[in-house]
Write a structure and sequence with these properties.
Shape: elongated
Number of domains: 1
Number of strands: 0
Order of helices and strands: HH
Structural class: mainly alpha
Largest sheet: none
Helix content: 55-70%
Radius of gyration: 14 Å
Strand content: under 5%
Distance between the termini: 23 Å
Length: about 60
Amino acid sequence: VGQIAAGFFTSVFPGNIAQYVEKRDAFGLDTNAKRFARLFFQPVLIAWALASTKDNKSK
């Protein structure tokens, strides 16, 4: 599930960049500052999705 979520977050990242560059409003992102800030949270979401399903068993 984590890999699927990470894949989803990765696949929408180019769209988020386009939304910032083209200054398109959507989902409460009505300023460039909000759109730009979201770009920094995308890698965090990807890392979180992968870490949430990481196998932590000792070998």
